[in-house]
Automatic annotation (TrEMBL):
Entry keywords, A to Z: Membrane, Transmembrane, Transmembrane helix
Name the UniProt record assigns to this protein: Malonate transporter subunit MadL
TM region positions: 6-24, 31-52, 64-80, 92-113
Gene (name only): madL
InterPro entries assigned to the protein according to its UniProt record, in alphabetical order: Maln_transptMadL (IPR004690)
Pfam families: MadL (PF03817)
Keyword Disulfide bond in annotation: no
CC per GO annotation: membrane
Top-rank taxon, per record: Bacteria
Length: 123
């Protein structure tokens, strides 16, 4: 049933937020540190565990799979928007660092493609 997917999603989100808040307080930051990431990892772990160990009904597995597939892109987009708004309002150093990180990532694509053994289209 789809409702089990919603329940699993809610559990993972709450657990991730709690872990993120605790981690933030542990390192002395008054913010949630990595809560969304912890929630996603927990969701992936529990989704895979449900396939192999819990032996859920096929309809229940479909519900869990649907909500886990919906959760990751939506939350990543929300977190990315918050990061960009915070970076722009914090000053240009954060924006320049973000642009440089993206440029470095794009520059590494051909290097990684050569190591991966994939053929590149040199037309």
């Amino acid at each position: 049933m789809v409702i089990y997917g919603v329940a699993l999603l809610a559990f993972c989100m709450l657990a991730g937020l709690i872990v993120g808040e605790l981690l933030g307080r542990l390192i002395g930051v008054n913010a949630n540190v990595g809560g969304v990431g912890f929630a996603m990892l927990l969701l992936i772990l529990l989704t895979n565990l449900s396939r192999y160990r819990l032996q859920l009904a096929p309809m229940t597995q479909e519900g869990v799979g649907f909500w886990s597939a919906m959760y990751i892109p939506i939350v990543v987009a929300m977190a990315a928007k918050q990061d960009v708004v915070t970076a722009v309002s914090s000053g240009w150093v954060a924006v320049v660092a973000g642009v440089l990180a993206v440029a470095a990532s794009f520059a590494m694509i051909p290097v990684l493609a050569r190591f991966g053994g994939g053929e590149t289209d040199d037309s």
